Amino acid sequence: MDWMVILNIAVLVAIIALLVYMQRKHVSFTKRVFTGLGLGIVLGALLQWIYGSGSETLVSTTDWYSVVGRGYINFLMMIVVPLVMVSIIQAITNLEKTAQLGKMAGWIVGLLIVTTMIAALVGVASATIFDLNAEEISVGEAEQQRAASLEERYSTDVEAVSTPQRILNFIPSNIFLDMTGARSTSVIAVVIFSIFVGVAVLGLRRKNPEQAETFTKMVNAVYGVVMRIVTLVLRLTPYGILALMANTVATTDFAGILELGKFVLASYLALAVMFIIHLILVGVFGLNPLNYVRKVLPVLSFAFTSRSSAGTIPLNVSAQKNALGVEEGIANMSASFGATMGQNGCAGIYPAMLAVMIAPSVGIDPLTWEFLVPLVLIIGFSSFGIAGVGGGATFAALIVLSSMGLPVGLAGLLISIEAFIDMGRTALNVNGAMVTGTLTSRILGNFKTEVFNDKTAIEEAKSL
Questions:
Q1: I need a labelling partner for 54 at 20 to 30 A (CA). Which of 92, 105, 240, 290 fits?
Q2: What is the DSSP letter of 391?
Q3: Where are the alpha helices (DSSP H) in 154-208?
Q4: Is 226 within 8 Å of 314 (Cβ atoms)?
Q5: What DSSP designation does 137 have?
Q6: Segments in 260-288 forming alpha helices (H)
Q7: Is 50 exceeded by the pLDDT of residue 463?
Q8: pTM assigned to the model
Q9: How many DSSP H helices and E strands does the chain contain?
Q10: Exposed/middle/buried for 255, CB within 10 Å: 0-12, 13-18, 19+?
């Protein structure tokens, strides 16, 4: 191994030791998260400045850093299925009537889809303001290869699957397969199975209370163990963010960002506007937007660095429940649903911007009602089943562009800035899920306002 790589690993270990020291000194969880974030940015920038993008030393270094960064994401993905399953079963068994479950799911799905449609309009506006046009982007070898890859993916993953088949993909046929996360809709499938189990327990409680009580006690015990595992994994958050951010900054194609700067600015303007709309919704429902922002920032920071809505589910649920005051069942359902449907960034803003960019290349005026109304409706309904991991936005774009009769290959023009934009999109996706949970809990009357207003609740637990 190159001695420079060993030195780089030693630097990462030294920073981790600093974060461990801060934990032992009982420095707050939020401060440790942002310390890891800041030091990761500095470390990544230094690595790229010293070694240069694409150098062998840098590639080897980021591979070793991934043991910490991607390893942390793997731990989070490890607990997603048991957390979602046990939490939703427990939440339903605590309901008095199944009608409450219908209201909960209805509001969550409805808010996710409506905000995604609003996000689509924001994306259209931003692309129009910046006068984005796909024909103005230079096409190199990488873009051509990406376009060919997207055309191939469209023919296998999109064109070959009809809308009824996509709906059927939500229904679990082998729950053990979905527990492995084998499909993009696995999380939703697990949620549906868990709902069936919970409703079955409610029915069993009326016919055989003793059996229902035995099962409920077992679920409560398993829930306690799962939540303890969640706590143990969340303690690793500062280290995971440190390594993820260092790798992200070290490997970012800044030349590509500068070349496509107009699209980057348009994208982040749209993301910022939609985030402000989220805060306005929070304010309309009688909550302090600034207090909300302070409490969700650690979660959004991880979503930004990891580019994984699914991997953020445990952090999402924990923050909603412990810091925002969202009812537990709603927190679990909104985080789970928000990772696979109604993603404001990946399934809303991004496909809308691409459609507006590409439409002129085939002689279509994107600013007509005949184009905009179908676009917004398609974006809303096609947002179901979009995978909450890196690459989900591309799949959403393929569905929308093909449905609008636009060439899907042109989406490959943005390959050099895809990762950089995806970071912001993922953070908005997760924020959309958290706002949805907050508003739903507020609407259904089980929101804990005292927890939301408690500034100390932001830390979740001093033991983290």
A1: 240
A2: T
A3: 163-168, 175-178, 186-207
A4: no
A5: S
A6: 261-284
A7: no
A8: 0.82
A9: 20, 0
A10: exposed
